[in-house]
Amino acid sequence: MEGYVFHTELSPEEMEKNFEGFDFFGSLMESLEEARDFAQGKSDAKVTVSSRHLPDVNVAEVRAAVNMTQKAFAATLGVSSRTVESWECGRSNPTPTARKLIYLIQEDHSIIQRLQNM
User: Fold this and answer.
1) Is residue 103 part of a domain?
2) What is the pTM of this model?
3) Helix, strand, coil share (%) of the chain residues, nearest 5
4) Residues of the chain with pLDDT under 50
5) What are the C-alpha distances in Å from 20 to residues 13, 15, 16, 65, 84?
6) pLDDT of the residue at 50
């Protein structure tokens, strides 16, 4: 998994002990079989399905409302200025997490200062 870094304070021996006896493949197969049965209406399992509505945000409007450049706004959110530019011109959309954060900033501009002080 190139690009992913895993940090832990556990030693390799402690990590191995934590997963001792755990059947990853069997667990995955069981989950897939349950999903298949549910999709085919063969399951008696009580499943709760919920959908979340993500708030609509206009990135350019929110950024302008807090009087920030694309570069400063991007740095505050922890993304590149190209990402903000891409959001603003509609080439891509913010991730659900970024969208929620931008919405919170839209509703409470003081969040910007708190983010900048982190």
Assistant:
1) yes
2) 0.57
3) 55, 0, 45
4) 1
5) 10, 9, 6, 53, 44
6) 65
User: What total of structural domains would you count in the chain?
Assistant: 1
How far apart, in Å, are the Cα atoms of 107 and each of 2, 73, 83, 89, 94? 37, 16, 22, 22, 17
Report whether 83 contacts 90 (CB < 8 A).
no
CATH number of the domain where residue 109 is located: 1.10.260.40
pLDDT of 31: 82
Report pLDDT for 73.
95
Exposed / middle / buried, residue 59 (Cβ in 10 Å: 0-12, 13-18, 19+): buried
In angstroms, the Cα distances linking 33 to 36, 37, 38, 42 are 5, 6, 8, 11
Does residue 84 lie in a domain region?
Answer: yes
Question: For residue 76, is it within any domain?
Answer: yes
Integer CA distances (angstroms), 90 to 27, 68, 102, in order: 40, 19, 15
